[in-house]
Amino acid sequence: MASSSSSDDDHHHHHQLPNGSTSTTPPDIQFEFSHHDPTIARINNGSFGSCPSSVISAQQEWRLKWLQQPDDFYFNTLKPSILKTRLVIRDLINADHVDEISIVDNATTAAAIVLQHVTWSFFSSHFQEGDCAIILHYAYGAIKKSLQAYVGRAGGHVIEVKLPFPVNSDEEIVEEFKRGLELGRANGRKIRLALIDHITSMPSVVIPVKELVKMCRDANVDQIFVDGAHAIGCVDIDVKDIGADYYTSNLHKWFFCPPSVAFLYCRKSDILNELHHPVVSHEYGNGLAIESSWIGTRDYSAQLVVPQVMEFVNRFDGGIDGIKRRNHEKVVEMALMLSKAWGTHLGAPPEMCSSMAMVGLPACLGISSDSDGLKLRAHLRTCFKIEVPIYYRAPVKGEDNPVTGYARISHQVYNTVEDYFKLRDAVNKLVNNGFTCALLSN
Fold first, then answer.
1. Contact of 339 with 359, CB cutoff 8 Å
2. Does the global pTM surpass 0.85?
3. Angle, to 10 degrees, between the axis of helix 319-342 and the axis of helix 306-313?
């Protein structure tokens, strides 16, 4: 019987595919990810992603091609091969032109490209001191630091929109964002940039980006940048529908590429010609996509394997869309199983989870700081062979026995139900043994 891809790869039940079409079976998946440490319950695909063996082999071939005859590769192969990757991305995210797609190292590099342009706008007096950028409080740490480095140093003001967590609906996020926009425009200030996450990292929540982008347009925000670091391979992306000026996503998180590769989409406009890669090399002035395709001698192989990644995902029923759907369904199922076992709740309703979900940990574990979360994570890694990030949420005044710790679980094709049982049992064991974070030494 042909088995479906991962969602039911707990080796117990397999879906029959229509027309007897071939699909990836659990042994295939085990082979493709046989380089993973088999002793670890790896439920943290969100942090560093995963790359199948067939793609690693393809990457190795690209590396050897370069090393065999670098000059020929540089003059005749590199740019056309990066163009192939750009064409695949253009179609996957529904962009109009391949010129709108640049391939860069990661979402942090993409942010540097956009923020560098914002900085120049301050220096050229196009933007005034005190004009502001707006960002979500849960924005990724590196992106917050980037805003500090680029916008803050140029005299801009950064406004963080506080978001509720646990969160119950999109409306709660929309309301808070509305308040942030009002604050940004107070005293005649101008909001020059809005930086909006598509999926926040910690805590992980899918943000109603299309609505927030529209609110920014209505509030005359100059430029809108969506940081979709986790998005490609995890949720649907339609850049025309979302309507932002810039959109970035890492291909090494949920899209099976080796590290590190990401795309930056820049909507065709006058600004596109003013954007430059922060690493200036020979292609400076030839447009961002071409500048990005050569930033000096380095290993470009991660950027070239996207066609092979497409071959890999197309071995699954429904391709990348099928993988996304099953990962989402499975992570929600596992999150509900865990919250039930621990007597807690999810940090967001299922429709606001992607292929990641936040699951409340028992309050008696005594997670009372970010460092407690890190210590507990390390304890689970060393003593139980489980890799899962833990988020600390400060209690609100008057809360009775509040849930202050949440595990961020991921589901990718290589995960099995046993991985989540291992986490469930480990936490239950800690609870039964009267463990608290206070017992862990610094």
1. yes
2. yes
3. 70
